[in-house]
Amino acid sequence: MKVNMQSDRRYDIDWLRVIAIGMLLVYHSSIGFQPWGALIRFIQNDQFSEPLWVLMSMINIWRIPFLFFVSGMGVWFALRNRTWKTLIQERSKRILLPFLVGIFLWVPLHQNIWQVYYSQPMLYLPNPGHLWFLGNIFSYVLLLTPLFFFLKINIASPWVKRVKQMFSHPLFLLGLIIPFVLEAELMQPESFELYAMTWHGFFLGLVAFLVGFFMAFSGQEIFVNLSRYRCITVSLAVGIYLMRVLYFELRTPDYLMSIESCLWIYAIVGLGYRYLNRSSPVLTYLSQAAYPVYIIHMMVLYGGSVLIFPLTMNALWKLLLLNGFTFGGCFLIYELIIRRIKPIRSLFGLKSN
User: Fold this and answer.
1) b/e 166-183 (16+ beta carbons within 10 angstroms → b)
2) Global model pTM greater than 0.85
């Protein structure tokens, strides 16, 4: 199977973004089956599935860095044919507007569902909720746009070519792990997986965003290397994960979590480049749907939890039913309302036409 090298469009990046959003929905659905779910304001099932956390932990240390990583790649592909003003304007419409609207519309809706379910006072202080990720991305774009366009303007200069050559060397993949390790050691987070609205989450996201940008900026060779060594990165990631489960009881030192996180990301990007760099009508649809689905999924998830958790059935069946309800409900809202009503499309980061 050959990678499509002729197309200027990187379909594998689009696929990876869609898959990452899908995994986020599955991950959030699983939190309701953990004994600490209600402590972080998720609706909690009365029957827990703690072994499920073992699988969730495999995803948890790379799911958010991976989203920032892919977002950084996307900025390079976006700015190749844009001025800095156009990029800021576009990202303001696509990211900042849905972020602000979400703070005052979608976040209070799902938080109010939680308050009603647990008979809590109906209070709301504006906060990003699950949309914190969008606020971070927009901040990174504002902070880094001068650097990005400086690189774009000087792309033909000898020193930029040397930077690209450096990134294309296979051993440089090891060097790219160092900033992630330094971030964890300097920030010393209370828990490596606590990303939302923490300085650890902000700086880890910034590192991942920058590395993703530079990898896309450097050209195809680094992706060829990731594809070539995908079996090695998968094996190492699985090995460190098993060590985390069997020896450290899921609490490895932060530097080791950083290394494992990077190896998972390398493995996924390498596999994506090898097998997913192709277009399809399904990808076209899912690429447009992913962003609105991400914005509304907590509201649908909480609604599904209220309906499903009181039912008398095994926790596994509830989990499967909740995932079906969340995915089905989100895509139904997207297809029948968001996609078809032009005045509200921009509220979800979509073009109005």
Assistant:
1) ebbeeeebeebbebbbeb
2) yes
